[in-house]
Design brief:
There is one protein chain. The chain is an alpha+beta fold. The protein folds into 3 domains: about 160 residues, Up-down Bundle (Four Helix Bundle (Hemerythrin (Met), subunit A)); about 100 residues, Signal transduction histidine kinase, dimerisation/phosphotransfer (DHp) domain (Helix Hairpins); about 170 residues, 2-Layer Sandwich (Heat Shock Protein 90). It is about 70% helix and about 10% strand. Helix 6 packs antiparallel against helix 7 and helix 8 runs parallel beside helix 9.
């Protein structure tokens, strides 16, 4: 109900505003047309005055010419050009005046103006011929007769007095200016009255609507505000006393229903709170048990380290004892030496297995290791890593091929030892999963203008990685199917450790691979200015 009444009131106000706007636009159009007509009439009158003045100055020039007083041809040409321009402007203004006002009352004035312009057009043409032919008077010539002949050309054309024609035209245009100004004043007065009437009507409608809705809305709004305040204070038993059929009564019924539901929710919330407290107690007990289990797991881990340490001592002692026994005493046959060496090799293999287990466990905590960062040339740890990886490649008949290292062009902030460890992981993977006689390639790329990172690429022609396995290669203990077939004894920690070391240096390791065709590992590290590396080198040398 309130919505319908409000829509009607707003519609009436909008209609009144639209009507006022349309009336104002129409009135402005009329006033603008009146002002434009007055401006054109004033311009026509001014042009007639300019034409008369120019004509008089041309008359004076001719008089000077006849008397030999040094009249300049440039002045004559300028005056003639001004007369033609003024006449052309009069013709344009006359056409504009006809276009603005083509009523029956003004049609006779337009005809008289066109007639005057026709006579003036002929008069100007005759004047140009006469003025061009003007020459100084010969000695003894009758000056009075010459002046009268010249005046006849200036003052008459087609049997009509040109001076009177111009004077009549100026008077007629002055009357037109006064008439248009009076019409514009009348239009403005009419507009003022129209606007005042429309504004008054709109104001009366707005005041009436405001008073009506103020009386109609005060009580329901007060009741709704009071009810909302009480509900906010927690008095959910309060109900808003509005039972009519309007929108406010519908809102009150909705609020009352919501208050009843909130009461029910509060009761359920209290019950659920008790249940939650019981669940928290149960979870606390579970957490206590989990902490105990974690302590036991840590104890087992320590025990495992103790066992591994014991296993390290045992094969080391066996190798040393075998060597000492073999070297003790006199020379022995070659077969005995070979047998001793075989036993040493077997024990070394056992020792290598134990060491691998220990390294896998130690590397699982690589994130906790601290780094000592300082500016360094990335070419140095790359060179060291290549030297250490050469033995791995030689054992498997894999060649390590490296492009020329750009010395001094790849400066980074990092820990040289950890970077060598990271590069050895990448080179070791490339060597381990390449076939015998294959080649592993390494490139060091300086930072470019479009990339603020130094890049190290390690490419191989090995077994490769399946596309669906690439997103998981940096997860701990993950090994692809091809990698498990190639080397069943791997731990799946190498790339995870390499990624952790790269991120600790602010960079990252990416891997692209094609199954059966090889892989390319890329290490990106943020570059630092070369002068930082030079300053660090000077500091170390000092």
């Amino acid at each position: 109900m309130f919505q319908r009444r409000l829509s009607i009131a707003l519609g009436l106000l909008a209609a009144a505003a639209v009507l006022e706007g349309l009336g104002a636009a129409a009135a402005l159009g009329v006033a603008q047309r009146q002002v434009e007509r007055g401006r054109v009439a004033s311009d026509i009158r001014t042009a007639f005055v300019e034409l008369s003045a120019t004509k008089q100055r041309l008359r004076n020039w001719v008089a000077q010419r006849q008397q030999g007083a040094g009249a300049e041809p440039e002045v004559r040409e300028r005056l003639q050009r001004d007369m033609r321009g003024t006449l052309q402007r009069l013709e344009g203004l006359s056409a504009q005046a006809i276009e603005l006002d083509d009523s029956t009352e003004s049609r006779s004035a337009h005809l008289r103006r066109q007639d005057a312009l026709g006579v003036l057009r002929t008069s100007v043409a005759e004047l140009e011929l006469a003025v061009d032919a003007a020459a100084p008077l010969a000695p003894g010539a009758d000056a009075q007769q010459a002046w009268q002949a010249l005046s006849a050309v200036f003052d008459r054309s087609q049997g009509r007095d040109v001076r009177q024609l111009i004077a009549d035209s100026m008077a007629r245009e002055a009357e037109a200016v006064a008439r248009e100004r009076a019409a514009a004043d009348a239009t403005l007065g009419w507009m003022r009255s129209l606007w005042l009437a429309m504004a008054g009507t709109l104001a009366v409608l707005a005041v009436a609507a405001a008073l009506h809705f103020n009386r109609a809305l005060r009580r329901p709004l007060d009741l709704l505000s009071a009810g909302a305040l009480l509900l906010r204070q927690g008095q959910l038993q309060h109900r808003i006393p509005l039972d009519g059929g309007d929108e406010f009564s519908a809102v009150a019924r909705s609020v009352n229903t919501m208050a009843a539901e909130l009461e029910q929710h509060r009761a359920r919330e209290a019950q659920q709170r008790q249940q939650l407290e019981a669940q928290v107690d149960a979870r606390t007990a579970e957490l206590r048990d989990a902490l105990q289990a974690l302590g036991q797991a840590d104890l087992r881990r320590r025990q495992l380290f103790a066992d591994v340490s014991h296993e390290l001592r045992t094969p080391t002692t066996a190798i040393r004892g075998e060597a000492e026994i073999t070297l003790r005493g006199a020379d022995r046959p070659a077969d005995e030496y070979k047998a001793a060496l075989r036993r040493i090799v077997d024990t070394s293999r056992q020792l290598a297995t134990v060491i691998d287990d220990l390294l896998a466990m130690a590397r699982s905590d690589i994130d906790a290791l601290s780094l000592v960062k300082r500016p360094l040339d990335l070419a140095d740890p790359v060179r060291d890593a290549l030297l250490q990886a050469a033995a791995l490649g030689a054992a498997r008949s894999v060649r390590l091929q490296a492009d020329a290292l750009p010395q001094g062009r790849c400066c980074v902030m990092g820990d040289a030892q950890r970077l060598r460890q990271l590069l050895l992981i990448l080179l070791d993977n490339a060597v381990r999963y390449s076939p015998d006689g294959a080649e592993v390639r390494l490139r060091l790329l300086p930072a470019a203008a479009d990339s603020p990172h130094c890049c190290i690429e390690v490419a191989d022609d090995g077994i490769g990685i399946a596309a669906h396995e690439l997103p998981q290669v940096f997860e701990r203990h993950f090994r692809g199917e091809a990698a498990r077939r190639k080397r069943p004894d791997g731990s799946g920690l190498g790339l995870a450790i390499a990624q952790a070391l790269a991120r600790a240096h602010g960079g990252q390791v990416t891997l692209s691979s094609t199954l059966g065709q090889g892989s390319v590992a890329r290490l990106l590290l943020p570059a630092v200015p070369a002068f930082a590396h030079a300053a660090a080198a000077l500091e170390r040398s000092a």
